[in-house]
Amino acid sequence: MVRLNTRTARWLVVVVAVVGLVAACTTNREPDLPPSTDPAAIAERVTGPDGPAFLQDIVAASWDDGGARAGELFAWIPQDAHSEDSAAAIRAGETAHAIASFIADDKDALAGTPGNPGLWRSCARSLVPYIGAMAGDLQGVSGFEALDTSNTEMRRTAAVFAAFHKDPEASRIFTEAANERAHSFEVSFAEEAAANPTLVGNTAPLEDLMRAARLRGLLAAGAHIADPESPVATPMQAQTEVMYQVASRSVRPGDPYISPDFFRQGRLLSPNQINKGSWSAYDSQLTAYLAAFSTSVMRFASTAIGSPLSPVNEHRMRELHATLSV
To answer: Which domain of life is it from (predicted)?
Structure first.
């Protein structure tokens, strides 16, 4: 019989513990997938009491096909999200919500799992129809409630945005969709503000602006949580874009507030057409022109998640990174 000294025995205990933790997060064995890919059967499996365990099994597996077969289980969700069949739409929303909740609440279990790009891309596509709902706009979808209330740091939602950085293509799919949704909210506000400037202070158009702010902030927060060393974004450019969207619908050359240099062929130049040296003047002149909307635009920049990268929130994001590592 071989006797181990105390020090060697302790090291063996540590090694066994570490191996156990790794095995708990990752497995080479592909789990059995449901025999039926019928949406109702998949929804029942994902939203049922064993749903989180099922999702953990497929996320932790090292799939030979990169998770493509597992991802196919959710291919119906974006198709049914806007279905005229209310039962199908609710089923899609509830299943997507279960996936989002798993990502948000089981972030520790996701750390160190295989890349499985096919699976993560499918999850990203499944949640795209519900990006607006994550920012508080529940119109057009059913069965999906926001993961956080809008007057909080939206930590669970930020975790979802961060998780898709695990795969570059999944990140692109989700990020582009979130940017487009934010832009649609900004345009909606701008159109209403230009048409009815006295109404934007406390009505639905302002809520569209706040939804855009939340999405802009969540995008920045997700990127920074996934990589705390990445450049820190600010809401300034998005804020200037909102001002441009409003001003471009009404301002004309010759306006006393805006220099002729910022017009081309009778139209106001967009922010991405302004060179770096002129940015400050452009931003200041838009602000002066839109004095009537200054409160609304400033709320865009300072809304709860619209400006998530203050020193305090940046510190909190670095804390989050420890548990949201992807």
So the answer is: Bacteria
Please give the model's pTM, rounded to 2 decimal places.
Answer: 0.77
| Consecutive H or E run containing 125 | helix 117-127
Query: Residue 19 corresponds to which amino acid?
Result: V
Q: What does 131-178 look like in DSSP terms, one character per residue?
A: HHHHTT--TT--S---SS-TTS--HHHHHHHHHGGGSHHHHHHHHHHH
> Coil, strand, or helix at residue 231?
coil
**Residue 266: which region, alpha, beta or left (left: phi > 0; alpha: psi -120 to 50)?**
left
Nearest-angstrom CA–CA distance, 201 and 218: 24
